[in-house]
Amino acid sequence: MTDMKNEMDSDLDQNYSLNSNADPKNMQELTIYVQSLLQNVQDKFQTMSDQIITRIDDMGNRIDDLEKSIADLMNQAGVEGPEK
């Protein structure tokens, strides 16, 4: 079973990459082609999702740093912070 999957993956890589102009000729080839397209979409979505999460984390860290800097400046100026 694993050998068959590896063979199909190899065939897919060689003949049905997104940049290839080869059209699938039968159901098995169509299935492989569609699986390839779906995997590529999933990979791209995961990459974008990871980038978005990283940027949100960075933004959160910057906001925390900004809040700390503002609190330090308010303390230096003798102004009390907002009551919680």
Plain-language structure description:
By secondary structure, this protein is an all-alpha fold. The protein has one domain. The chain is 77% helix and 0% strand. It contains 2 helices and no strands. It has helices spanning 2-15, 27-77. The longest helix is centred in the middle third of the chain and has 51 residues, at 27-77. The radius of gyration is 26 Å and the shape is rod-shaped.
Instruction: State the order of secondary-structure elements, H for helix, E for strand.
Output: HH
Q: Mean pLDDT, rounded to whole units?
A: 82
Low-confidence stretches: none
**Approximately what portion of the residues adopt beta-strand conformation?**
under 5%
Global outline: rod-shaped
Q: Structural class of the helix and strand makeup?
A: mainly alpha
In total, how many domains does the architecture comprise?
Answer: 1
- How large, in whole angstroms, is the Cα Rg? 26 Å
Distance between the termini: 63 Å
Function: Negative regulator of the heat shock response. Negatively affects HSF1 DNA-binding activity. May have a role in the suppression of the activation of the stress response during the aging process.
Subunit structure: Homohexamer. Associates with heptad repeats of HSF1 trimers and probably also HSF1 monomers, and with HSP70. Association with HSF1 trimers and HSP70 coincides with attenuation of heat shock response and the conversion of HSF1 trimer to monomer.
Subcellular location: Nucleus
Biased composition (Polar residues): 13-23
